[in-house]
Amino acid sequence: MSEMIEKWIKEGVKHCENAKFEEGVKCFNKALEKEPNHTTGLHNRARALSRIGQLEAALADFEKLTQLFPTHASFIGDYAVALHLNDKNELALVHFEKALQLEPTNPYRYSSRAFFKDRTGDLEGAISDYEKAVEMDPEDAIALNNKGLVEEKLGYKDQAKQSFDRSNSLVGYDPTKTNPLPKTENKAPKFTPTKPTNRWEVMKSVFTKDGFKDFAKFTKGLLNGKKD
């Protein structure tokens, strides 16, 4: 039975890697019917459900994961994002803070909280958290870019330009050229300073170079320009 469960999960992940998230969910459902607390199955199903906009169902899976693993910062951080996207901001803040307390030296945790603060109107607080993230990881191009976005909102044009210039330099992006490409594939992808147009863009913006590594693998290709 365990071999069949692993087979379903593997198939589900493969579907998701090919952007067939609904098919992925079906596979994860089969596995979780047999083993309801399977960690990998729950986490991947939660991610896939988020990807297709079934946020309440995703929230339930993330919540279960945090109950099973109350000190797992990644599960708690994902749960915080899902809570925020479901307009449960007070509870979301509690979990962003908890994830940061569990991993106080992880710059991704500061970027996560910065994302939340930006989305809920605490722009100065968001800048402060992004600055902390960049201080801990000076090569985090996404945090620099997102910091520039917030600075732009506040009218801090000089600071925003500096943030964007540093981010562009890290990814090898030259805004004066047509169809620029990163110099190397292992650099963080460039997120241009535009307002997110859908929930996936919102979720994507929170994940920094290190924190998003596993999620990027799960959604192979989606960060490099493929459409929903």
Write the layout of secondary structure elements.
Elements (H helix, E strand, L loop, with lengths): L1 H16 L3 H14 L4 H13 L3 H14 L4 H13 L3 H14 L4 H13 L3 H14 L4 H13 L3 H15 L27 H8 L6 H6 L10
Please sum up the structure shown.
It holds the Pfam family TPR_11. By secondary structure, the protein is mainly α.
Q: Classify the helix fraction into a percent range.
A: 55-70%
The CATH architecture of the domain at 105-220 can be named as Alpha Horseshoe
Order of helices and strands: HHHHHHHHHHHH
Beta-strand content bin:
under 5%
How many angstroms separate the termini? 34 Å
Low-confidence stretches: 180-228
What sort of overall outline do the alpha carbons produce when their principal axes are compared?
globular
CATH topology of the domain at 105-220: Serine Threonine Protein Phosphatase 5, Tetratricopeptide repeat
Largest sheet: none
According to CATH, the homologous superfamily of the domain at 105-220 is: Tetratricopeptide repeat domain
CATH class category name of the domain at 105-220: Mainly Alpha
Instruction: Give the rounded overall mean pLDDT.
Output: 81
